[in-house]
From TrEMBL:
Residues 530-881 form the PEP-utilising enzyme C-terminal domain. The active site is at H467 (tele-phosphohistidine intermediate), C843 (proton donor). It comes from Oryzicola mucosus. Keywords: ATP-binding, Kinase, Magnesium, Metal-binding, Nucleotide-binding, Pyruvate, Transferase. Belongs to the PEP-utilizing enzyme family. InterPro entries: ATP_grasp_subdomain_1, PEP-util_enz_mobile_dom, PEP_util_AS, PEP_util_C, PEP_util_CS, Phosphohistidine_dom_sf, PPDK_AMP/ATP-bd, Pyruvate_phosphate_dikinase. This is Pyruvate, phosphate dikinase.
Amino acid sequence: TKWVYTFGDGAAEGRAGDRNLLGGKGANLAEMCSLGLPVPPGFTITTAACNWYYANGQTYPDGLENDVKSALDHIGAITGGRFGDPSRLLLVSVRSGARASMPGMMDTVLNLGLNDVTVKALADASGDARFAYDSYRRFIQMYSNVVLDLDHDVFEEILEEEKARQGYELDTEFTASQWQGVIALYKQKIEEELGKPFPQDPQEQLWGAIGAVFSSWMNHRAITYRRLHDIPESWGTAVNVQAMVFGNMGETSATGVAFTRNPSTGEKLLYGEFLVNAQGEDVVAGIRTPQNITEAARIAAGSDKPSLQKLMPEAFQSFVEISNQLEKHYRDMQDLEFTIERGKLWMLQTRSGKRTAKAALKIAVEMAAEGLITRNEAVKRIDPTSLDQLLHPTIDPKAERNVVAMGLPASPGAATGEIVFSSDEAEEMRSAGRKVILVRVETSPEDIHGMHASEGILTTRGGMTSHAAVVARGMGKPCVSGAGQLRVDYRAGTMTAMGQTFKKGDIITIDGANGQVLKGAVPMLQPELSGDFAAIMEWADGSRRLKVRTNAETPTDARMARSFGAEGIGLCRTEHMFFDGARIVAMREMILADTEKDRRAALDKLLPMQRSDFVELFEIMAGLPVTIRLLDPPLHEFLPKTDEEVAEVAAAMNVPEEKLRHRTEALHEFNPMLGHRGCRLAVSYPEIAEMQARAIFEAAVEAGKKTGSPVVPEIMVPLVGLKKELDFVKARIDAVAKQVMTESGVTIDYLTGTMIELPRAAIRAHVIAESAEFFSFGTNDLTQTTFGISRDDAASFLETYRQKGIIEQDPFVSLDIDGVGELVRIGAEKGRATRPDIKLGICGEHGGDPASIAFCESIGLDYVSCSPFRVPIARLAAAQAAI
Ligand code: ADP
Ligand code: MG
Ligand code: MG
């Protein structure tokens, strides 16, 4: 087996396509080399070696050691160095790189190979002792942290103390001999902590770092990240070993990161940050505030620190050329890392850049316009679920803004919440149902769970490419970073800004669009869905076959769904209409009635209310199909629960408490999900279904007159298992239809159909289709009844199932295609066999889940129906499934 792939000097053994074996970083380093770009030479140890390592008790495969040795010689041949030889110095970085980019999850060690001897050689060779000792102390810090597992703070403390003693503000002010002093203190501390000295042997250092990269694949942070992003453990990570280039060799050296287009807005402008006389992660870590790369960006940001364009015009020019070349080559926006060593540019990384949903849309639309990609590719480039971010509110421009601090607009959207200062607190408060803003000096990978639990993130340090900014953008959470005027005191639990002090629990708002931090809650606006969003949606609509409807019963939801592009209502749950105000009273009267006559009297009160609901829905959906489901839940859901409620309702309705209690007891069920509900109610109390049918038909007549276009209602009978159940209810519906037509003199077209939500219904679909003119697969209940799992009780064990690898995904979130999906397929096929033009749709959460939508496309359903906010997601996912 080939465990090691080399790259360097315009050639490489791997290619961009080898990402699975070499990891993203390694594959792209190889590709950049092959393109002839300036990349320090190096080699990649494959992900297969990582898997071998874990499969064999954390040992290395035979031959790896030799392969690494010759690969080091390969580097040396290019650079003229020799690893471990002070007379021909060769220092390397050891970098992890998994298949999918996992920002900040894995650790990198720079300047490896330095020791008490080689550091002198480095000082001589570079003619810059300050630089050499700065590099050595960085190496000791990183290596101790990553490989020797010593806490970062140990070194920070020593450093801060020394800085204070010298009266320095920046690390760059230290002289060579002062760094030597710091190094001595570091080494002393390490010996104290570990009982042995810092390793001096470069070979030992190298293998320590390689082992640490492999081990970090299984560290807590990496495991959490993989779980959150559905990355399989079996992928493993690669290790990249690469000759060092130095951005910390004084004022003509620098290091930076850049995006070929703005990752926040998508604007086609090179966008990035750099630091002079700095190394590697200084930019990302927010140790100093970085400078802009282009003049244009510097001016836009109002910064008085010179841009790279101004400071190092030649290196800047080659960087611009290379970034253009890479974007064209990869046909996507790239995220780049570079270092300038004494004026010479070196490329250290390229990958497809993470971006906000807004930027993703703009970039896709503009790249299609530039002819770089096709429209279908543009549609395919957008992650449907990310659209969610765009559907979230922003601050009303007319709102009064009480600005207490300014930071960088690191991730768009606005959020309001209570201040918390730690990730654990964020999680606690979130699970207590509170909305929080996580306020930190800066975030680290340990904060991922807290960031998830928060509405938004606010940091006082760090730039647009800081950890907080990158991760928040990925999560679609609003973030303001680097709000330097804010003083956070973790110990006191306070945040101070412009003389005002905020405590934990105080409410603030952050505006990720402009970096403002505002006092209190601020009115928000719904987003506008025009421009790039509309363009992608239009292209998607042109490519999709599936129709997209919405689940809605209130006028507000229906209107919102229409504005999101819903093509009708796929599920109107009528029970939701019975809960408020006078309705619940009439409903309870109906339930408490002893005779059919009393029941009809109560239903007569409900009829006009129900009718006016439907008129409004039909008007909003003018000309579009509307599917209305007859009453579905068991009746006891409408009765009061606690003693106080019972007393209150009894008094209001003027019935004895006893009677109410008695009825509640009579309606009690041990397993209501499988109880007296759905069409079973209509069979027991046909007058309920009749009232609803009448309300629907009368509303259809009325709305038809008002809008001028005839309404074709689709009446849906829930929880049918037997054809005879459907026939029984359908006969009542048909009779009412006839009556209303006679009374109104208007002919009404309508469809009667059923939900397929019981396995029996799916299996007997060919028989049920004799009576049903449409099927709507109610996959929420169908999942419950197929698995025999109650959705309301599943949370307690499904997560355990996930953790133990028994299921990969919650079947209530993404359709279980093998089981529940098989029943849907059977139902669809059998339904069509009997009635070739039967309308087929799916309602329930799965109607808004991209993977489930792809399945619906594959079996040729006519439409999916989902909640209003998921309509754009479904439109896009339906197009992607069809392309
Ligand atoms: P991450 O995946 O966290 O970005 P990287 O391996 O890319 O980790 O490295 C961290 C930092 O060190 C980056 O800024 C990178 O550009 C820099 N770096 C890595 N290898 C070298 C090298 N050989 N010479 C100079 N800088 C390097
Ligand atoms: Mg990197
Ligand atoms: Mg159901």
